[in-house]
């Protein structure tokens, strides 16, 4: 048997249609008596009388036991939106704290022995009844990246790319993107495994653990990838490395396995230029790169100019949304290589060195650098085809404090100016009562205007409470920094 509450709700929903028909018949004068209308449409007489006198449908009516008013909840939702828009979505404890602040501003201290507070689980119910809100787990996001996700900067960069393509007549086949990525050659990929149910938490899986660093310089074009440029850690070359090196690949060394200015220059002259010579569709090539120091040397750009290569650098800290390799290629590449290392570990190989890396890396590249993956990466970066909205639609964080919304005050009849929501509600009630008692009460547009003024004042006071709390937190943080500098 269904719960009684559900039965009542279904009964109310079934009565709503006949009630509306009865109300319409009374308003049009087709039926003179409420009792007669209730009998004809088979609806409760008391319910019909209440609806005719202005009562609303109960399921559409706000519950009486809500601790915050409608305006206070709207202000709280707006505050959450502001923080979320700036990449600082509040935790549930922060939402509860702000709700307590709004409640304390309205509720008189004299009417309560203890400070007014919302319940422990109030935030859960608040989020549930707000269709625009939802609780989610947060993820870490680099502040500098979020700070540089400026739509104006990104749009200006796309305009620069488009102008360059149009000015030099660069075809889609002559657009390239290159970048470096690193590998700890003995580390497996994190994956979901099937284990016994008695284990708790994440199951440990053995791995070779060799964390020697290897850098691979990769370059992709429209649906294809050029041969990579591998950088090993070492002082001298070893003959065995070249025996495992696939045809067309280049190998270099550095003291720490990272790229340098000289290596970047050698990659351009010995790898990129020879490989793209036979692929050119036009005179000019467009090379998209990030702001790494090895890409910004005068000799690098001089060599590009001598070979009709136009290098365009992306804005700082924006490669995660503008660079095709970072968007769709490097993550599958590292997952594929990690799975290969895990497979070797299960086969009994407990140490991975440079030779194993050279034998495993080609398989990982063939799995990751497919035609579809490369095409989708360029498409997600808004480059091929040219479509900046692919990126601009994803930019949803602003690390800037918005200007608080301004509100216009209203002249009131009372000599005292309200300074908190409680005083404003009291004064609004007195004004409404005075207007109602007067014989020549103002027309409905004036009443609506007053309601809007009162609502605006409430929102402004709620925003002031939020800003006061934020100012208090900033003062505390500033004081800590001042003490730290003095020490």
From TrEMBL:
Read off the InterPro entries from this record. CenT-Element_Derived, DDE_SF_endonuclease_dom, Homeodomain-like_sf, HTH_CenpB_DNA-bd_dom, HTH_Psq, RNaseH_sf
A GO term for molecular function? DNA binding
Instruction: Tell me where on the tree of life, at the top rank, the source sits.
Output: Eukaryota
Choose one Gene Ontology CC annotation of this protein and give it: nucleus
Using the record's annotation, list all stretches that form the HTH CENPB-type domain: 60-136
Q: Which SMART domains is this protein grouped with?
A: CENPB (SM00674)
- List the Gene3D superfamilies: Homeodomain-like, Ribonuclease H-like superfamily/Ribonuclease H
Which compartment or compartments is the protein found in?
Nucleus
Keywords attached to this Swiss-Prot or TrEMBL record, sorted alphabetically, are: DNA-binding, Nucleus
Please tell me where this protein is predominantly located.
nucleus
Q: Give the protein's recorded name.
A: HTH CENPB-type domain-containing protein
Source lineage: Eukaryota, Fungi, Dikarya, Ascomycota, Pezizomycotina
